[in-house]
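Might you be able to check the backbone structure tokens below? Thank you kindly.
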Amino acid sequence: MKESRTNNNIALHYWTERPEDVITALGSSENGLSNEEVNKRQKKYGPNSIKGKNVSSAYLLFLGQFKSPITLILIAAAILSFILQDKTDAIIILVIVVVSSGLGFWQEYGASNAVAKLLQMVQITVQVIRENAAKSVATESIVPGDVILLSAGDIIPADSIIISSQDLFVDEAAFTGESYPVEKQVGSLAIDTPIAKRTNMLFMGSHVISGKAKILAISTGMNTEFGKISNRLRLRAPETEFEKGIKKFGFMLMQITMVLIIIIFALNVLLHKPILDAFLFSLALAVGLTPQLLPVIITVNLSVGAKKMAAQQVIVKRLAAIENFGSMNVLCSDKTGTITQGQVKLYQATDFEGKENEKVMHYSWLNAAMQQGFKNPIDEALITAYSQNEQTKPPLLDEVPYDFLRKRLSVVLSLDGQPTVITKGAFQQVLEICSYIQKGTAAPTLMSEDDRKQLQERYANFSKEGYRTLGICWKQPNQQTFKKEDEKEMVFLGFLTFFDPPKESAIKAINDLNGLGVKLKIITGDNALIAETLAKTIGLANAVVVKGSELMSMSNDALMAKATVTDIFAEVEPNQKEQIILALKKAGHVVGFMGDGINDAAALHAADVGISVDTAVDVAKEAADLVLMNQDLEVLANGIREGRRTFANTMKYVFMATSANFGNMFSMAGASLILSFLPLLPKQILLTNLLTDVPETTIATDNVDEDYINKPHRMDIGFIKKFMLVFGLLSSIFDYCTFGVLLLILKANERQFQTGWFLESVISASLIVLVVRTRNRFFKSLPSRPLWIANLLVVILVLAIPYTPLGNLFGFVQLPLQFYGYMTAIVIAYIITADYVKIWFYKKLADGN
């Protein structure tokens, strides 16, 4: 045997050897591994994942809270201050930075753990043979030497060699970039065969299109070919529109802040204030003015949203998709299981004349019951409708599994000692391979043009009545083996008609989606007549229907225009689903796609929000962003509401940060010009930042106005800039009112001024939350209990600080009672004014947001 070293230290060029030799070399057998051996190998090789171990994630997450350059510089400056002069101030600054970072870590770590638990609910599983019994296990538990059973729709969990296969076709696009399915089969290849040509091997990162196989796992996790190049292949998912917007917003705010900080630092130095104090003040101001908690707030909001959506039976696999889910205004979905009950039932098995026929029923049952591939709902309906004793099944000689190009399934059986092919499938695809016809019990005759015309008419009538109609045919070949190319000159036997009644909840669910501003578009492989009948049943009387054949002749621009106004896409090919999704996205829509089939993966990836169901095939579930535990549009509508609540609460923090922080920048700039001392000490700025951030961590629990939920919203940087400018300037106006009271009326000294502005700044920032959190009058929309309690506690704490030892530590002093009267009047005036300005702002400047 040829020697070599693989990443699993298996001395074997396994693609050059017979499967039985590879099984022996790996210490396995066709009966699979023992549970004891599996445990040993799991300890040796680790989890079958290219994500790597997550042991130190908590430590890395904590250290990640300090990655901001400004925070690092501030820590360094505080250490320098500690060495040079003010040890107490330096310690206070460091403690505040650590407490603030610890708060972010605690929130983010709890959120990530909660999401990890949710993801366990939608694990991908695979069939393996262990201790001579087939069982379903999570793909992460696969080890080298495992014997795995595959069928259509399964994800290949490890690099493997084929032990046995039947008509096996695999999609390796995720691994090789090749878009066409590749046929795989047992065999031995030359030692220099490149990876892309190893037809006797299957690789992690691909999935089964059709056929079945028994395979042996060779390499797992990072030792697979996919794992070796995972840094190139396993790229981050494309950024959502919201993620891009948040990044632009943070960068924009940082730029403005840094410019003002440099100006303020220069002014303080020119005014002969201590350089170290001015430097620390500028750095602390930068920390205080940038929305440091924004990433944490987003993560917490999304994880809370994910938990709430889980309660609505929607499991979130990718947190960032929640924001797109809330922004979604077009939902594309198949009809089966969402609009219809998804329980396909046989209506009739009829002959050429439309009369019920025993032979049609029997042959159809044989085809469904004997095929060894992926059993779909139609097969199950046939088996249920015509149950027979297992002993009555004839020997299976060969099979050509269903695929999405032929749209047919053929089995070769031994009937009365004679090989007999029985083929069923889409009516048009069955008719095109038939040269003969069997009328009733008569012998087959050559099919005439009149016969074909009558069959087409009968098919059209069945479709108009809303039945899904398949064809069935047969022939007796001379040989026992059979290939796709042999599907010709067959005998048309009859029709199989099925019905899948609409769900009673479908009409209400569609109306609910419309009420949420989400347009439902049905994409189905069924013919247009069935689709039109269904549309009328669910209340879409004047639905615009476009056939897949029409899409083929359209230019991209024409498709984009047509897709927007179309209600139902019928008779579509699998690849056209992705084209429709991309056309809708190009037209400016945020598009969701709901799919559960083998051929839905590309469309799920292309959509802004990929949605699947827990019963979907592995490849669809893996490609989806969201997985529904209940295949119902009503569940989806509830999930959309939760997605919009999450989006709304995330944006509230953005608005709070901009209204307070941007206003403080203007105030600091002006105060630096008119004062001979620092308006706030560095430690006071950091304390202000901490106290205003703490209650905002509860924003994920806040109530959201119903009228906001009823419309999709999108991240709009231009809108945020307007809000920042208007409410930042408004905040600054009332800061200057406070300056006037302190300097002109109370003749405040340095420490009194700093105390007074600290009190007004934190209290106004806490109370303005009540205004900016809603588009309505603040007294008509109440905040959640955690939010208002957290803000109330902060206000009480801030008022008490000057009367405690903590106040002296931070340089605060007690103020005359008349200041509190002035401050109360200023804060009340600020809230009332902001509430009126907000109504004007949304009416005049925020159209469409």
Observations:
- The longest helix spans residues 633-674.
- The two ends are 69 Å apart (CA to CA).
- DSSP finds 32 helices and 23 strands in the chain.
